[in-house]
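Box 3.1 A note on notation
Throughout this textbook, protein chains are presented in two layers. The first layer is the amino acid sequence; the second is a token string describing backbone geometry. Keep the layers aligned when reading.
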Amino acid sequence: MAKIKITLTKSPIGYNKKQRATAQALGLRKMQSSVIQEDTPDIMGKIASIAHLVTWEQVVEGLPEGILPVEEENEENQEIAAAKTSPADVAAAPSPEAD
């Protein structure tokens, strides 16, 4: 099942108790705190009820943060991947001082 990252971007202070309780039920305790939850209808309903306090985004499972999935890869990511070398490649390369 897909996951979503929810971030509390606005303080629930000054809003009614139900909205504060909803933020806490999602696991959001402090400003700018984030949690990762399953993308289910009940979680999406909670997000909708406090949409003015939070932001959310889809999380791709199995990929480190900052790496795009294959279908969203662009030329810049391909150039970066091509420029990286493994430690074995560096060790196997002849040194410039060896004559």
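The helical segments are 17-25, 41-49, 75-83, 87-92. The chain has a mean pLDDT of 79.
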